[in-house]
Amino acid sequence: MIRWLVRGVLVLLLAAVVAAAGFRIAASLRERQEAEAVLPEGGRLVETGAGRIFVMEAGEGPAVLFVHGTAAWSGLWRPTLEAVAARGYRAIAFDLPPFGFSERATDGDYARRSQAARILALVQALEVRPVLVAHSFGAAPGVEAVMAEPAAFAGLVVVDGAVGLDAPARGLPALLQPMWLREAALSLTATNPLLTRQLLASLLHVKAAATPDIAELLQRPMVRRGSTRAFAEWLPSLLVPDPDARSARPEGWAALPAGAELIWGDRDSVTPLAQGEALAALAPEAHLQVLEGVGHIPQIEAPEPFRAALLAALDRIVAR
């Protein structure tokens, strides 16, 4: 009996290894395109001191710079860019590496402060002083950039930000320390096109917002060569807190310039509203807008209420 049990466990383990290897090979076969060959229309690569950054722009006027969240890219902001541009702003969205179509880090460094340096390099290259709008995990390096050089920005809007405030120190789980295991795990999940829509829906309160069109949009950059490898290099920055990041400490938020704006879904299960309330209480004269019946990605779950809240926030910032 024990012999058959051991054999059964070994067969299951072997099947899991074969399946993981199969998904990793499939990812390698999909990821064969150079970024330049698949650049979306309506965008451009900007040369910066931190590499080439892909941007999409609309409109003229005061600059508003949009930072996306995990595994997204600037294309997800397109409808928002158009609405903001119609209000009289220069709306700029960019791809934060390793996601989207921007140049990836040759050293695999995607730590929060390194990402903040990329944002500052882009601001310098564009010669703008923008209001920064940062969503989800993009809020961590976005706010870090504002804290590093507050004079470089006209204001800050945080949308359901994932900043890891006072997160306890921890290392990368042992199972994910080998690069090949991280690649296997990501090829099964984040870079697996069969799961894009399901993974997106898991982040949302309004599940119907995870449409096939949005899933297809998110998949577009994943055909780039080495996407799974790049995501695996980035993964530690998601899982391991940076204890030296100012944006992860209460005193950093307390030192922000007055008047930060926050927009939060009251049904956000990824970064619950209590986190937004805590950040708003720390930042001087911060203003928090709560969107009812909305989860973690309000720009696709409730586009019109989100745009109204965003435009109100931008107008308040510019009027100061």
TrEMBL record:
AB hydrolase-1 domain: residues covered? 62-303
The alphabetical list of record keywords is:
Hydrolase
Q: What GO molecular functions are on record for this protein?
A: hydrolase activity
Q: What Gene3D superfamilies has UniProt attached to this entry?
A: alpha/beta hydrolase
- Is this entry keyworded Hydrolase? yes
* Domain of life, source organism: Bacteria
Instruction: Quote any Pfam family the record assigns.
Output: Abhydrolase_1
Q: Which PANTHER family match?
A: ALPHA_BETA-HYDROLASES SUPERFAMILY PROTEIN, HYDROLASE
Its protein name is Alpha/beta hydrolase
Please name the source species.
Seohaeicola zhoushanensis
